[in-house]
Amino acid sequence: MNTVSGTTSLVALDEEAWQAFIKLKTILTSDPVTCAPVYDGRSFTVTTDGSKFGFGAVLSQEWEEADGAGIVRKVMYPVAFASKRTSRTEEKYIPFLLEFAALKFGMDEFDSIIHGQAIELETDCKALADLLNNDKLNSTHERWRELIIARNIIAVRHKPGAENKVANGLSRMYEHRADEEAPGREKTVDPGWETRQGIINDVYHLIADNPMAELIRRFEKDPFFSDILMHILFDSGNHSKLTHDQLRAQRRLAHRAEGFVVEDGKLWAVGGRHSNSVHKVECIPSSETQELAMSVHCAGGHFGRDAGVLALQKAYYWPGLRRDMTNAVITCPRCKNFGPRLMSAQLQPITRACPFDLLVGDYVSLPTGHGGFKCVLVLVDVYSRFIFATPLCGPGTGKTTVNALDRLSNGLLTPQLFMADGGSHFDCAEVHDWAKSRNVQALKTPPYAPWANGLAEGSIKLVIGRLKRLCTPTVGESPEEDADASTTPAAWPKHLSTAVSQLNDWALSLLGGYSLRELLTGQLKAERRYQLSHPITEPTLEEVVARSAKNKRSLSTNGVELRCINYST
C-alpha cells in the first residue's frame, strides 16, 4: 500500500524488483536455521558471552558450500543455541568471571553433542584465555577450569563484541524482562557435585574392612536405606553448628530412622511399624529384592502373590515388597509355562479367516467437541481390521452399544463373535440379550489379560492420531501424543468420518498390501486388478512344454489332432 500519499493504491514493482523480492523470499524460507551436527572429524566452535543480565552460547560447525557463481566458500552454520538469566549471585560477578561462568554454562549445555570432539572456543574477553592458564584460583573456579580444559580444546580465539552479535544478543535478551519471567533465575552455574550435595570441604571417612564396612557397601546405592544407615552409624547427636535448614533435614532423617537398628552386621526393622511381625525383620537393599522375591516364590510352591507377600513379611522388610513379589509371580518361567492361568487364557494370536467372524469393541472418551459429542464407540473387524466409529453425546451405555451393533448388523453383516472388556457398557443385560437374539457369542477379555483386546486399543490410538492431524496439521507430530485422548482438539467431530475413511483406505504391508476396505468388501481398485492379472515373470521352457502337453491331451479327446512343436530351437 502507498502510505506516503495517504492513498491505499498498490505499489507496482518492475521485473527486476519482483525478481529480487522472489529471491529474497526464497533465501529466507529455504536456508535452515540450524544444522545437525556432523561427526566426520571437523571441530565444533563454542561461542559464548556473559553479562549481568544473562549468559548466551552458540554451538556451530563449518561447512563448505558453493555460491551462485560456483565458488566454494566456508560457511559457519549454528548447531544449537543456549541462554539463561543470571541468578542473584551471578549478576554480582565481575566481568571476566561472568565470561568464565558463561563458558562453563555453554560447555555444560552442549556436553551431549561435543563430548569427545575437537572444540574451538570464541569469546570477547581477552582475560579469559589467561584465566584458563592460571593455576592460582579459588576452589570453585578451579573446578570450572578443570572441567573446561579437560576437553579436547584445540584453539581459543578472541572475538570482539561487535562481531559476537548472536551470543551477545542471547545474553542480553533478559535485560528488560521481569525477574520471574526469566528461566535460570533461581539456578546458579553448578561448580561440581560438591555443591549439589551441600559439601563445602572434601571430607573422607576411613573405616576398617570389617562387617560394618561390608554393610555400608551393601546399602550404598539403596535410595531408601542408605541415609538411614549412615545416620544410625555416624550421627553424634551434636547439632549445635548446623544451620536452620540443616537442622530440619537432620530431624526428618532422625524421624525416618526410628524403628531401625544395626546388629550382627545387618540392618533390622523393629516389628510393629515396618512389619506385621512382632519380631525384628531384616532390611534388604534394592539390589537384592528381585532375587529374594523369586527364591521365596519358588521355594513356597509357586503360590500366588498374597501368599508370597505374607512369607516375606515374616522375615524381611523393604519398600515395594508387594511390587517385587508381583513381578516375581508374573515373570516366573514355570508359572508362565505350567501355571493355572495358562489353561484358561492361552496366549495365542487372535486370527480370523473371513470378515465378521470376530468383532471387537471399545469406548474412548474425548474432550467435548462441536455438537456436544464427547465419546466414540470404536468397533473393529479382526479379519480386515476395518474400523467403524460412532460418536456419542454422553457416556457409553449398554443401549448405545446395542444400537451401534444393530445398525451394523442390519446394514452389513452380523458378527459370529463379539469381544469387549468387562465394562458396564459391554457386560450388561442389553448386550447379552442382543447377542442371544442374533445368535452371537459374546466374549469378555479376562481382567488379568487386558491386552487380549489390543486390536481395539491400537485402532483407537490410530483414530486419535489421525483426528489430531486433521484438526491441527502442525500438532501431533510426535507418536507419543497419539495415545493421549485428552489433548484432542474440540473440532474432532467434524473430522471423525474423514479420519476413519482414511484409515480404512490405508494399504498395509502387514495385510499383503491391501487396504482394510478391500479386504472387507473383496472389491479391488483398478490398478490393483491390473497388477493381479499381469504375469509376474515370463514362463520357462519347461513350463511351456508341460502346458502344451496338457492342452494336447485335452484336445485329443475331442478328435482334434495337434502337431508337435519343437521348442529346442
Question: Can you walk through the features of this model?
Answer:
The chain is of the alpha/beta class and 569 residues long. 39% of the residues lie in helices and 15% in strands. Mean pLDDT is 78; it is low at 193-197, 199-203 and 554-569.
Strand order of the largest sheet: 3-2-1-4-5
Secondary structural class? alpha/beta
- CATH architecture group name of the largest domain: 2-Layer Sandwich
Distance between the termini: 82 Å
Could you name the CATH topology of the largest domain? Answer: Nucleotidyltransferase, domain 5
Q: Please tally the β strands and state the result.
A: 14
Q: Low-confidence stretches at least 5 residues in length (pLDDT < 50)?
A: 193-197, 199-203, 554-569
The outline comes out as extended
State mean pLDDT (0 to 100 scale).
78
Domain module tally? 5
Number of helices: 22
The profile of the biggest β sheet is:
5 strands, mixed
Oligomer: single chain
**What gyration radius follows from the Cα positions, in whole Å?**
37 Å
Strand fraction band? 15-25%
Highest CATH level, the class of the largest domain: Alpha Beta
Helix content: 25-40%
CATH H-level homologous superfamily name of the largest domain: Ribonuclease H-like superfamily/Ribonuclease H
